[in-house]
Write a structure and sequence with these properties.
Layout (H helix, E strand, L loop, with lengths): L29 H8 L11 E2 L12 H13 L12 E2 L6 E8 L3 H6 L5 H6 L2 E5 L6 H6 L33 H6 L6 H4 L3 H6 L14 E2 L12 E11 L2 E11 L4 E6 L6 E3 L2 H4 L3 H4 L6 H11 L5 E4 L2 H8 L1 E2 L3 E3 H4 L10 H9 L13 H25 L2 H12 L7 H5 L6 H7 L4 E6 L12 E6 L2 H11 L5 E7 L5 H18 L13 H9 L27 H10 L6 E5 L5 H7 L7 E5 L12 E6 L2 H11 L7 E4 L4 H7 L18 H10 L4 H18 L4 E7 L2 E3 L2 E3 L1 E7 L9 E3 L1
Helix pairs in contact: 14-15
GO molecular function: exonuclease activity; RNA binding
Organism: Acinonyx jubatus (Cheetah)
Keywords: Exonuclease, Hydrolase, Nuclease, RNA-binding
Length: 744
């Protein structure tokens, strides 16, 4: 069962004092920077969160930079460098990382069907542009393209472990097991998981929404240090409804197996997971015992004060669909650094000197595993934390991992600090696995990689159903949906159409003007609202308005939706700012409550600060109050609530001059786009964007708090050309910052 159990629920070691921000944060007042530098050291309760703004040049994040973030999310700053393009605060409070990949989609798709992607654009505050994908996008963002690791780190080396004389001397007081339990022996009740710990590590609990149909064991007796221990281990298979129980073993304290039952799953079996469970179709065919039978039997066997012992026991109880209040989890009892977990096979060899889960056997022996967890718990109670700390299990585990990889013994930090270390290697060093959900038609190096649990499905719908079940069981998940890409011709037409639409939305007609009017004065007037790209004199216009064409009929609705975009919410645009605006603003920051960031764009050629800026506030109300002040008589600035996210602004800046339309020219939609979209019918991309945006958004909202989630539209690439991708990013229930930051 061990490979199925490396999953989320880790509490990582506190990070060191954060380093200074990226070089792009230049010119901030020293007092403001000092507040930012010390932010993580504040004593109040903390949650994992992302920086208010991203520091990516031109708002584009490379695949290598994505890999930086993912590695840091797994290991923290004690072992890897912080990402260069964003700030991830309180990484040790992250519970899971989930990456959704919408294969076949690009930034163009997102803005072509902007209205339909409403759920996602409102849920994710951070958006960034991605370069066009390479031939293997997933390998790029995981870091596999740089180096394929030799050996299999998950395979234990045959033979005995190194002797204690070769161990690195450590300070016992700093050992995680001493810090949690102290150096003296402890009783059984001290080893039990608290209710809060059970909640953190996803144990089934009474009253929780996902445990409504779970059966309690009715063990509510008074627990003492003499209460009986029972070792429990379950094997599972993969069915159409997720993981289901196929075998349960219960071992009493003396080592006697009191229950060993095969169980027939209720749903169609997709994969027996024989290499882990040892269960085959032939073995399970004659079985008639069902889940409800073993639930009834287990309730009858356990006394009121029974304590269940297991390795990643929460998964076993979820497979049983049962709730039990008194548990000892040996993967948590033998505390490891940074929230990592030792494998059961390793603990059996290092602590008990026995070999289990041998490679020459077909799958694991559930009774053997249950008995081993029981022996490990008894060893802990008999010898105490100090004895275990003296064994220096961390050094032994690192030694074996490096030998299995065909390398000499080195420091773990030295291994992961290499620039070509992949996310998979980082997870393996944490004793964890990656989940990869995809369609069968898709091929990727990731599916054949070590330390990766790959589940292939026939349809996107099946991928979504499996994601709901499997994501909570893994610390790091990649869920890939596949969509049929548009033809290059259609994509190019959509691209031209979208750029024309945004250009026309940025155009206004004003008048009437006389033939002798001062164009310079008119241009100066319009420039006070922001940069003017071009101006043409149209004498017939009798009002100020946007051009009315087929492309701009929905512009009023689109403007309202842009205002509600999560990246724009609480952000205001100001025009007419000068070089001293920043200092003036900081001097009076006490009147701008909730100010989080000051974004000061610069000219890409000259490097000079432009005469407009964006201010980001914590709430819409704070932004509105600030806007009223800044437009008042003391500041005399022009402004409004922001409409254009920074990454979109960077994209629109690249509109080629020849694509700009002469005002007043009627736009006729490219017929091939209309025809192609009509032919697609049920799979119409507009409907697909709405449907899948809502489904993925709903799945995101069901994730546990503290989950870092990325939605990646990789972009498209063909022999005819390429289109950039788009990334959306957020942390479920992330805590917002209250410290203003300056970005030039």
């Amino acid at each position: 069962m061990e490979p199925q159990r490396e999953r989320a629920g880790r509490h990582l070691k506190k990070g060191r004092k954060r380093r200074r921000g990226p070089n792009m944060l230049v010119g901030a007042a020293e007092a403001m920077r000092a507040r930012w530098e010390l932010e993580e050291s504040q004593p109040e309760a903390k949650k994992a969160r992302l920086s208010t703004i991203l520091f990516a040049e031109n708002c584009e994040v490379t695949h290598e930079q994505l890999c930086e973030l993912l590695k840091y999310a797994v290991l923290g700053n004690s072992n890897v460098s912080k990402p260069s393009w964003c700030q991830l605060f309180h990484q040790n409070q992250l519970n899971n990382v989930v990456v959704f990949v919408l294969q076949g989609m690009s930034q163009l798709h997102f803005y072509r069907f902007y209205m339909e992607f409403g759920v996602l654009r409102k849920a994710f505050t951070h958006k960034f542009r991605l370069p066009p994908p390479s031939s293997n996008f997933l390998a790029d963002i995981i870091g596999l393209q740089k180096k394929q690791t030799t050996g299999d780190l998950s395979k234990m080396v045959e033979g005995s472990l190194p002797s204690t004389s070769s161990k690195v001397s450590i300070s016992l007081q700093n050992a995680p097991i001493i810090q949690k339990y102290g150096s003296k022996k402890v009783g059984l009740t001290r080893c039990l998981l608290t209710k809060e710990e059970m909640k953190t590590f996803h144990f089934p609990l009474q009253g929780f929404p996902d445990c409504e149909n779970f059966v309690p064991t009715k063990c509510h007796g008074s627990i003492t240090d003499n209460s009986p221990l029972f070792g429990l281990d379950c094997e599972m298979c993969l069915t159409s409804k997720g993981r289901e129980l196929t075998r349960i073993s219960l071992v009493a304290e003396g080592g006697c197996c009191v229950m060993d039952e095969l169980v027939k799953p209720d749903n169609k079996v997709l994969d027996y997971l024989t290499s882990f469970s040892g269960i085959t179709k032939k073995i399970l065919n004659p079985v008639t015992t069902k889940l409800k039978d073993v639930q009834r039997q287990l309730k009858a066997l356990l006394p009121p004060d029974a304590v269940l012992v297991g390795h990643s026991l929460g998964l076993d109880l979820r497979a049983l669909k049962m709730i039990h209040p008194y548990v000892i989890d040996t993967s948590l009892l033998y505390v490891r650094e940074q929230g990592r977990r030792f494998k059961l096979k390793f603990l059996a060899k290092a602590i008990l000197g026995k070999d289990i889960q041998c490679p020459d056997r077909l799958g694991h022996d559930a009774t053997e595993d249950a008995r081993t967890t029981l022996e490990l718990a008894r060893y802990f109670l008999k010898y105490g934390p100090r004895k275990i700390a003296e064994l220096n299990l961390e050094a032994l585990a690192s030694h074996q991992e490096l030998l299995a990889a065909g390398q000499g013994p080195r420091n773990t930090a030295e291994v992961v600090q290499q620039s070509n270390t992949s996310v998979l290697e980082c997870l393996d060093l944490m004793g964890q696995k990656l989940l990869f959900l995809t369609r069968e038609a898709e091929t990727s190096e990731l599916s054949s990689s070590r330390n990766c649990q790959t589940i292939k499905c026939l349809t996107n719908k099946e991928v979504l159903e499996q994601a709901r079940v499997e994501i909570p069981l893994f610390p790091f998940s990649i869920v890939q949906f596949s969509f049929e890409p548009f033809s290059y011709k259609l994509t190019e037409e959509m691209n031209k159409r979208m750029r024309s639409k945004w250009t026309e939305m940025s155009t206004v007609y004003a008048g009437p003007f006389s033939k002798n009017c001062n164009l310079r004065a008119v241009k100066r007037l319009f420039k006070s609202f922001g940069p003017v790209r071009s101006m043409s004199l149209v004498l017939e216009t009798h009002q100020v308005q946007r051009p009315v064409t087929e492309l701009t009929l929905d512009s009023s609705t689109l403007v309202k939706e842009l205002e509600q975009d999560s990246e724009n919410r609480g952000t205001i645009y100001l025009s007419g700012v000068n070089q001293t605006f920043k200092e003036h603003l900081l001097q009076q920051s006490n009147i701008f409550l909730g100010l989080e960031a000051v974004i000061l764009p610069k000219d890409l050629k000259s490097g000079k600060q432009k005469k407009y800026c964006f201010l980001k506030f914590k709430t819409f109300g704070s932004a509105q109050r600030a806007l009223n002040i800044l437009k008042g008589k003391d500041w005399k600035l022009k402004g409004r609530h922001a409409l254009t996210p920074r990454h979109l602004h960077a994209w629109l800046r690249g509109i080629p001059p020849e694509s700009r339309r002469t005002p007043g020219v009627r736009v006729i939609p490219p017929p091939s786009e209309q025809q192609a979209l009509q032919v697609l019918k049920v799979d119409h991309p507009k409907i697909a964007a709405w449907r899948w945006g809502r489904k993925i958004g709903k799945l995101y909202h069901s994730l546990s708090p503290g989950t870092l989630c990325l939605i990646l539209l990789p972009g498209t690439k063909s022999t005819h050309g390429s289109f950039s991708g788009l990334g959306l990013m957020g942390i479920k229930d992330e805590e917002e910052s209250t410290t203003p930051k300056i970005c030039s």
